[in-house]
Amino acid sequence: MDRFSWANGLLEINETLVIQQRGVRLYDGDDKAKLDVGAVLLTTHRLMWRDVKSHDCCISMPLSQIIFFEEQAAGIGKSAKIVIHLHPLPANKEPGPYQHSKYSYIKLSFKEHGQIEFYRRLSEEMTKRRWENTPASQPIPTGTGSQAGRTRAVGIVGIERKIEEKRKETDKNISEAFEDLSKLMVKAKEMVEVSKSIANKIKDKQGDISEDETIRFKSYLLSMGIANPVTRETHGSGTHYHMQLAKQLGDMLQAPLEERGGMMSLTEVYCLVNRARGMELLSPEDLLNACKMFESLKLPVRLRVFDSGVMVVQLQSHSEEEMIASALDNVSEKGSLTAEEFAKLLGLSVLLSKERLLLAEKMGHLCRDDSVEGLRFYPNLFA
Questions:
Q1: pLDDT tens digits, 161-173
Q2: Coiled-coil regions in this chain (predicted)?
Q3: Residues 145 and 255 in one domain
């Protein structure tokens, strides 16, 4: 409070009133000031307080004296407050109601609300610092320090403000990310065109390039994914789209299926296909609808649904008898196997391994022991 000086309550030349609020009590630090509830005025140059009953009682403090300010939310029996932290007392300060104070901050306690708008306007003035561009007719003592005008917010109100700022920043980052994604999709299409062009040149100049170089370069192109993925933009929607998609899937899945023993779960297929398609991702529904058309199109792959509901894609040439025989041979050799142990032996997923064991059990070649230790399969000695 010792930063305040007595004032006549009149505005100086070049000084403009920004906002005023009635029902405000001053605090010297944490102690109530020896002044009644009055009105606080914010100008472009000063912070003023005036007694509403006695207009002769008016004090003011230059805004340049403020280091930073913060909010204190209202509580039970407590009004919302703005805490203003101040520079040290200047040497040429005019007399005021307090000659000395043990605090370096004051509080404005708003008994009749209005603190949110006052805080906003004070923040604007501390940012604009108009007192530097249009000095008042009387010199106003100024504090020093690199932190002048810095604001900080605490309490519930401050937390809400920080959350809102964080949300705006997140929205901005998301917008920028989608812009970058759009650019990446355009670039990916350009890369596909480049890969097609290079592949055609390799075909035309087969004699000029060694076989090793050709194989290596084709592997690089293959890693880029499917050159011409079937999309709704190119093949429309509905049955025609799913037919074309099924044909493309039938071609691309043959090699991966042969590497994995002739069968893959639909989840594995989904991941593999979308990885190869790059930016033109498939939805699970489109993939399922396309797989259902394998048989009608007489493609070399089939969609199969096990009794448990697990869906797999398998080669048409995949022999169920061989699959059952393999399960029986491995179980007989080891004495007993769980799905996890069988998966390690064959290099398959646990899901598919379990389905093979269940199929062998269904055909009467295996029997199970389902205990607290888990599901274990044994050769069926009763058969």
A1: 777 777 777 777 7
A2: none
A3: no
The answer to whether position 160 is within a domain reads no
pTM above 0.90, yes or no: no
| CA distance linking residue 185 with residue 201, whole number of Å | 25
For 363-383, write each residue's pLDDT tens digit: 899 999 988 888 899 999 887
Q: Are 185 and 279 in contact (CB under 8 A)?
A: yes
Q: How many domains does the chain have?
A: 4
Residues spanned by the domain of 182:
165-223
Residues 6+ apart with CB under 8 A from 325: none
105's tokens? 């901050």
Closest CA to 126 of 82, 68, 165, 40: 68
Report the distance separating Cα 23 and Cα 263, nearest Å: 79
Sheet of 366-371: strands edge to edge?
337-338, 374-379, 366-371
- Lookup: tokens for 101: 């104070």
